[in-house]
Amino acid sequence: MADSSFDIVSKIDPMEAKNAVDQAQKEIAQRYDFKGVGAEVDWSGSEKLLLKASSEERAKAVLDVVESKFIKRGISLKSLDTGKPYASGKEFRIEIALKNGISSDDAKKVAKIIREEGPKSVKAQIQGDELRVTSKSRDDLQATMALLKGKDLEVALQFVNLR
Q1: Measured between alpha carbons, how far is 47 from 30 in angstroms, rounded to an integer?
Q2: CA 65 – CA 62 distance, rounded (Å)
Q3: What does pTM read for this prediction?
Q4: Does domain 4-11+102-160 have CATH number 3.30.70.860?
């Protein structure tokens, strides 16, 4: 019998991210407490967001709105790399980068967890920005998924291509 496998990835659905940003922009345009403070969310490119407001507190409030919309769309906040508020002229800005792919350091940490705590028949192999996990037993693969879901890692993981 052939080995069963699945891939561990960390990806953001670009349409869900765009929808979350659109919803945040609508809410910011409609809310009374954001009137006249220059609050806005700019979607620059596919992996960067720029939040702007007239004060640091308003910028943080805009960040809260954006984060809540990402959560509602099913995107983990671990996928957002949020910067500190900084002054730029008369406004405060916060930059957010969207993380796609698992960095090599994070992939090594996940592979180490699988090697040390997972079932003995399970093997993890780093392939670019994802991990391939193989085993003869599907039950062992499911136990590995449960193990990783229970861990508090710095990266949001999705499990795909189970075969």
Answers
A1: 25
A2: 5
A3: 0.84
A4: yes
User: What's residue 92's pLDDT?
Assistant: 93
Percent with pLDDT over 70 in the chain: 98
- DSSP track, 26-72: HHHHH-GGGTTTT-EEEEETTTEEEEEESSHHHHHHHHHHHHHHHHH
Identical fold between 4-11+102-160 and 14-98: yes
pLDDT tens digits for range 41-67:
998 776 899 999 999 999 999 999 999
Instruction: Please identify, in words, the CATH class of the domain defined by 14-98.
Output: alpha beta
- Give domain limits for the chain: 4-11+102-160, 14-98
Q: Tell me how far apart the alpha carbons of residues 136 and 60 are, in angstroms, rounded to a whole number.
A: 49
Average pLDDT, the chain: 89
Encoded amino acid at 38, one letter: G
